[in-house]
Amino acid sequence: MRQPGPDHPITVTPHPGRIRVMLNGVAVADSRNVLSLKEASYPPVLYIPRTDVDLSHFTPSVRTSHCPYKGDASYFSLKVGDASQPDAVWSYEAPFPAVAEIAGHVAFYPDRVDGIETT
Fold it and tell me: Domain DUF427: where (predicted)?
């Protein structure tokens, strides 16, 4: 486990406004309680509480990954009608303490959904 610091900063902050994630014309996530995780020079990633996600469209994937700063990620595929997107969603089920706030949240790959709307 590596700790964020000046050479690799990570911040988790509330994201203002509402986020909706769409696939095949259906909102698979809709939340006003989103967290924005900014890591080093990467673009911010939006983490949406599971309570604001329609899990009926999720199927667990066999894919996993490891981040030395955040921990082990699990992935999910999305299916809405005839639209299917493998490994479109990820979650840190037991994130490292430095990013503990993202526990119970999921993030979406923007290029694997129809859109991530912000208002």
Answer: 19-111
Q: How does strand 26-31 pair with strand 19-23? A: antiparallel
Domain encompassing residue 104:
10-118
Domain count, the chain: 1
Domain assignment of residue 52, yes or no: yes
Is the residue at 62 inside a domain? yes
Q: What is the largest CA-CA distance in the chain?
A: 46
Helices (H) and strands (E) in the chain, counts: 0, 10
Residue 4 lies inside a defined structural domain of this protein: no
Question: What pLDDT digit, counting tens, does each position of 26-61 carry?
Answer: 999 999 999 999 999 999 999 999 999 999 999 999
- Nearest CA among 15, 21, 77 for reference residue 53: 21
Query: Which of 66, 48, 55, 60 has its CA nearest to residue 104?
Result: 48
Digit-coded pLDDT (tens) for 64-76: 999 999 999 999 9
